[in-house]
Amino acid sequence: MPDGRNGSQRPWGGYGAGLRRGVVVGALALVALLGTAGGGLAVPPPPPNPSDSELEASRDHANARAGEVGELTNQLAEAESRLTALQSEVELKMEQANKARVDMQLARDAADQAERDAAAARTEADAAAGAIEAARADLDQFVAGSYRQGSTIGSIGAYLGSDSPDDLLARAQLLEAVSGSQLDALEGMQRAQVEKSNKDAAAREALQLAQQRRTEAEQAKAAADQAQTAAIEAQQGQAARTSEIEAEKSRVEQLLYDAQSRVDGLEGQRARYEDWLAQKEAEEAERARQAALAAGSSGSGSSAPVTSRPSSAPAGATVEAVIARAMSQLGVQYAWGGGNAYGPTYGIRDGGVADSYGDYNKIGFDCSGLMIYAFAGVKALPHYSGYQYEAGYKVPLSQMRRGDMLFWGTSGIHHVALYLGGGQMIEAPYSGGYVRVVPVRYGDIMPYATRLIG
Are residues 416 and 274 in the same domain? Predict the structure, then answer.
């Protein structure tokens, strides 16, 4: 159990054992002093000596306090576990905001492409309209020429609709008058009209697609805003809960210190009494020796006792290229939204957690940005851990190997790291942190790793 004063490990009663050793040495020194100065000095009056029942009650009280400390320690562990879960929730919401930002950009790109398609369709429709006008001009020229040669518009009308013999004669005259080029003009106008209708339909369809993509972009932006708001609220709640946990932790530590201090109690008194008793016995033995000498006892001079010092307890575009790129960034600071295929970049604003750390004004990586940089020579990855999870093929964690990506968030992916082998991984952890190598954390880890190489 840690000592509240110096943080060392010691068993119950360690203080008394040390005191006894010190008093024994003091008693020996006193014996030597009495041997030179005579018997004028005396051991002080005895300290209180608690009874065995008092000692037993003291031990029971210490055990009860130890149990209370253990319970408070468990409560603290649970509080810290909740804090870790809340931090994971904040990371998840931040990654959801990252996803919405990526989706919004994709939707905007699609809308821009649809607008370009609509503009191209309108241009083609305008060209078709010009072709119609040209065909109509050719037809007008034909009609004018036919009139000069003696046929009339009325004859054309008769040819198209009348059933009389005169009308049939007019049709024959018209067929004789119409040349191949004039028929081509009529057919050309009809084709142009059909093409214009098709182009108009294409333009309308492209415009509808553009409007749909624009709506999707607006919806994606709304989703991004909601995710950002949720992240801010979660972080505010997490900050408040952190303060509560820190206060609880301080209270537990104080109780732990108090419990350790009370352990000395009556056992300390008993230890001090036993030390006094040893000193008293040494004094009486010295007086007996002096009395024997004074009575004429003969014998060789006794030498000072020798004590032995107790001995100390024994003091207790390849996987390697990807890993090399990631390891080259050790110590680079975390910046939410930071990092690309070329290295660390400025972070971006999130309106909450990352902003409170000034990530938008830092050059660094977030978790998915570090993966983008590490795998730049293998595959272009999106800046969102959820999409990166789907970027390769899955392998069970029991088969994971060096160079695989690991993910966290069984209820929604919020973090990614690169496995180094030997139970180690490299990650960009959180705002305020730095790119680091740490042991793999298995709490909330996804059951599969994602492999891009091999």
Answer: no
Domain count, the chain: 2
The answer to whether residue 426 is domain-embedded is: yes
Q: Over the stretch 346-405, which tens digit does the pLDDT of each residue have? A: 999 988 889 999 999 999 999 999 999 999 999 999 999 999 999 999 999 999 999 999
Q: Which residues are catalytic?
A: 367, 415, 427
Question: What is the rounded CA–CA span in Å between residue 286 and residue 49?
Answer: 24
Predicted TM-score (pTM) of the model is 0.52
**What tokens does 233 get?**
């609220």
Enter the tokens of residue 289.
């020796």
CA 332 to chain centroid, in Å, comes to 16
Give the pLDDT confidence of 102-120 residue by residue, as tens digits.
988 898 888 888 888 878 8
DSSP string, 213-276: HHHHHHHHHHHHHHHHHHHHHHHHHHHHHHHHHHHHHHHHHHHHHHHHHHHHHHHHHHHHHHHH
Range of the domain at 233: 1-296
350 & 244 share domain: no
Residue 4 three-state SS: coil
Would residue 225 count as lying in a domain?
yes
**414 in the same domain as 348:** yes
